[in-house]
Amino acid sequence: MFESLSDRLHDVFKQLRGHGRLTEENIQEALREVRMALLEADVNFKVAKEFVAAVAEKAIGQEVVGSLAPGQQVVKIVHDQLVELLGGQTATLDLSGRQPVIIMMVGLQGSGKTTTSGKLAKMLQGKGRKPYLVPADVYRPAAIEQLTILGQSLGVPVYPAATDQDPVAICRQAVHAAQSAGYDTLIVDTAGRLHVDQELMGELARIKDAV
Ligand SMILES: Nc1nc2c(ncn2[C@@H]2O[C@H](COP(=O)(O)OP(=O)(O)OP(=O)(O)O)[C@@H](O)[C@H]2O)c(=O)[nH]1
Ligand SMILES: [Mg+2]
Asked: Mind listing the pLDDT tens digit for each residue in 153-174?
């Protein structure tokens, strides 16, 4: 995703720099390209729209038009805005504390918990940690299988949970299994849920308490 985004932006910037002077149309055209690049890189529609609007406002506000190196200036504005969009500060995962460290993936149905669990596991493995994936979604058909296959393809061990088990029990047993196998980071992939679903929200609280 980032590779194709940077390729696209590179092309847009090259065109911008090529202009001795920039008109407002030049900038708008470039920003249309930036917007397309963001959308193709899977950025949320609203985020892309706001991003381009913010850049446009700054670019036009700073009187880039007619300035000495207008292309450079627009590139800088886009760059600064991208840094801001991705979060001005870098936050790292806090993996200190008693081992195994437990990461709980929580969110709406389909928001990307399972996929992100896999990405996290791979990233942590690359840093020399020993992640253990824990499927705690016993409700959606094939949810356990999804994480199991993901783990297999990544070479990350997955706790062998079954759908007739209680998610709280799965997590508790997975912690014991991790302790005896020497896994230092548990990634608990919970079932998607709405915050108004009291029963399922209660389950999350119980998992948190249990592990
Ligand atoms: N485009 C895009 N799709 C994603 C991303 N992350 C996940 N998906 C897709 O979104 C869909 C749902 O992803 P999951 O990881 O299964 O989401 P989930 O939160 O675990 O879903 P539930 O367990 O059903 O609540 C899948 O088709 C994923 O391939 C992402 O970053 N970008
Ligand atoms: Mg899932």
From this structure: 999 999 999 999 999 999 999 9
95: which residues sit within 8 A by CB, 6+ positions away? 101, 129, 185
By alpha-carbon position, which residue is closest to atom 4 of ligand 1?
Answer: 112
Q: What is the pTM of this model?
A: 0.74
3-state secondary structure of 1: coil
CA dihedral 5, 93, 152, 157 (to 10 degrees): 170
- Output the domain CATH number for residue 189: 3.40.50.300
Q: Measured between alpha carbons, how far is 22 from 25 in angstroms, rounded to an integer?
A: 8
Ligand nearest to the CA of 107: 1
Instruction: Tell me, in angstroms, the distance from the centre of ligand 1 to residue 114's CA.
Output: 7
The strands making up 185-190's β-sheet, listed across from edge to edge, are 101-105, 185-190, 131-136
Statement to judge: residues 109 and 185 lie in one domain: yes
Q: pLDDT tens digits for 91-144?
A: 788 899 889 999 999 999 999 999 999 999 999 999 999 999 999 999 999 999
Same domain, 134 and 192: yes
What is the C-alpha to C-alpha distance for residues 137 and 152, in angstroms, rounded to an integer? 18
Q: How far does the centroid of ligand 2 lie from the alpha carbon of residue 189, in Å?
A: 7
Q: Which residues of 114-130 are buried (b: 16+ CB within 10 A; e: fewer)?
A: beebbebbbebeeeebb
| Ligand 1: nearest atom to the Cα of 118 | 15
